[in-house]
Amino acid sequence: MTTTETDEVVGLLLAAGGGRRLGGRPKALLPHRGRPLVEHAVRMLRAGGCDRVHVVLGAAAGDVRARAELAGCVLVENPEWADGMGSSLRAGLGSLADSGAGAALVLLVDQPGIGAAVVGRVREAYRSTGSLAAAAYDGERGHPVLFGRDHWAGIAASASGDRGARAYLKEHAAEVELVECGDVADAYDIDTAADLQHLE
After folding, report:
1. For the segment 37-91, what is each residue's pLDDT rounded down to a tens digit?
2. Within 10 A of 160 (CB to CB), how many other CB atoms are there?
3. Is 18 exposed, middle or buried (0-12, 13-18, 19+ CB in 10 A)?
4. Is 2 exposed, middle or buried (0-12, 13-18, 19+ CB in 10 A)?
5. Is the pTM higher than 0.85?
6. In the chain, beta strands by DSSP E
7. Which of 15, 38, 177, 185 has the greatest number of CB atoms lying within 10 Å of its CB?
8. pLDDT in tens, 176-197
9. Contact 110, 21 (CB under 8 A)
10. What is the number of alpha carbons within 13 Å of residue 158 lying toward its C-beta?
């Protein structure tokens, strides 16, 4: 079977957070395995099968561009990053509008315990531009999340504050395919100084 553009799942990495609870340290630049955390997340998306990756930057975007190796990525700056994840999701989906892709696979930069195996499983749940899928951990919906392009406008319209697509996914819960990934990932967030112990 020949792959067409509408079969393509593009990785969308949300990496704009300012790390308010980390004393204002932008999450994208936290060190992990000797490099900025944003590079690790991009590698996981690519290793999981997303050949194209869009990265939404916000806090210290200039520093991220200067210090992180993000060659081949489409970098999207969100000037409204301080308003929360919703604004970054809108910016990211907006950057995909003319991409021809069939779906976006959304990963958060602050979850390094989610690797390529999870990305690959969720990506495999893509069936059509109407697909909705999410990784699940012991049956509870988490990240990453796959949004078929038919849903992008509705998600962008409802995304606000730090809620991202939560309201949209709740409204369309019956359509969301949950992909159990608890056996291949540890879905912690890097939110506070205590969480930094998870970084290597």
Report:
1. 999 999 999 999 999 999 999 999 999 999 999 999 999 999 999 998 999 999 9
2. 16
3. middle
4. exposed
5. yes
6. 9-15, 31-32, 35-36, 53-57, 74-77, 103-108, 132-137, 140-148, 177-180
7. 15
8. 999 999 999 988 888 888 888 8
9. no
10. 15
Q: Which residues contact 198 (CB under 8 A, 6 or more apart)?
A: 112, 113, 188, 190
Helix and strand element counts for the chain (H, E): 6, 9
Give the pair of three-digit tokens for residue 142: 């988490």
Report yes or no: 126 and 9 within 8 Å, Cβ to Cβ. yes
Q: What distance in Å separates the CA atoms of residue 16 and residue 58, rounded to the nearest whole number?
A: 4
Task: Give the 3-state secondary structure of residue 118.
Answer: helix
At residue 158's C-alpha, the angle toward residues 172 and 104, to 5°, is 70
Cβ-based neighbours of 154, under 8 Å, separated by 6 or more: 168
- Is the bond leading into 31 cis (omega within 30 degrees of zero)? no
